[in-house]
Amino acid sequence: xxxxxxxxxxxxxxxxxxxxxxxxxxxxxxxxxxxxxxxxxxxxxxxxxxxxxxxxxxxxxxxxxxxxxxxxxxxxxxxxxxxxxxxxxxxxxxxxxxxxxxxxxxxxxxxxxxxxxxxxxxxxxxxxxxxxxxxxxxxxxxxxxxxxxxxxxxxxxxxxxxxxxxxxxxxxxxxxxxxxxxxxxxxxxxxxxxxxxxxxxxxxxxxxxxxxxxxxxxxxxxxxxxxxxxxxxxxxxxxxxxxxxxxxxx
Amino acid sequence: xxxxxxxxxxxxxxxxxxxxxxxxxxxxxxxxxxxxxxxxxxxxxxxxxxxxxxxx
Lengths: 250, 56
Description:
heterodimer, B: about 0% strand
């Protein structure tokens, strides 16, 4: 019996399945985010220390979570390409990179905008902020490295190697607040450090953003599969024309 | 809704997320349409994928 991963190795089957799943994932994500926004602004209290600025947490934490989760997904996809040569692994890694870069940028920006009123500065070179900035540069590096190659297959393999080397940044980001003395607060523990009145809106937003990512990732993967089909058909058309041109006239 | 003295920081954060996410969704939809149109144009010229041709 084939596993789901094996079944999805066929791009045509992936296109059929993703076309059915995508509207549901996108719809549930939109509904959760709308509900989460309502909770964030109208059904959660101001923090006793941070006041109203705590509302930035409801978008900052989901973006920060996604910045790491998406990189993890790219690393797993890269492993799938290098070890198992799964046909969709590279499609997945390529599709996820710009979305991950966007969420990492948003984590940095919203963190900076939260930091100014709370810490008195937009930026400090502390371990957490600096390691997330490196993650952002890693995303840009993955996109740039792939774009630098004309041979897509060679570009995909080298990008996968860089993605796997770069995965070491994830534990550094995660534990930076424990290993070093940083201005950034400790990691958000959903069960202990967040008051229940703020935990529920945060969980709803985190789930909504995660599903939003998966919807965007599926769409980006579908686009990439189509792009590769178009490229293959153009190459096929050119090869056919060349063959006709070189055949002797009868 | 009174968001206190730091309201601008909160609104700019939410607006930035809205702009970037909307931009990403718009880019993905436009790219999808572009690829689908290119594929359709090739198929109209009679060019077919090798896999679909061999399946028949």
